Amino acid sequence: QVQLVESGGGLVQPGDSLRLSCVVSGVTVAATTIGWFRQAPGKEREGVSCISEVDGNIYNADSVKGRFTISRDNAKNMVYLQMNSLKPEDTAVYYCNADHSTWAHGYWGQGTQVTVSS
What we know:
The protein is mostly beta strands. The protein contains no helices and eleven strands. The strands form two sheets. Strands 2, 4, 5, 6, 9, 10 and 11 form a seven-stranded mixed β-sheet that branches. A four-stranded antiparallel β-sheet has the order 1-3-8-7, with no helix packed on it. The radius of gyration is 14 Å and the shape is globular. The N and C termini lie far apart (40 Å). The relative contact order is 0.32.
């Protein structure tokens, strides 16, 4: 059974930092495409950052380049999202996702709320 559990969200001010964590069980993060998505109120879910299963390359949305950094700890089977210089437009529920080219579908965590407001 695949499970993903996010943590680390909260209420912060513009310019602050947060680090999101995702504990993964049932699959090995090093062997999947593992990443973060977000969904703001009234908007569609969008990809933020991911690490490819194929070559380990990292892909970031243009809106977070230079501010967010994804990383994974293979020993702990966890993935992180370090978010710096947060902006109000980063406010959203952030979801961890694990996927693989051979799977019928990916797996999602329950989400963690990030609110950036002064």
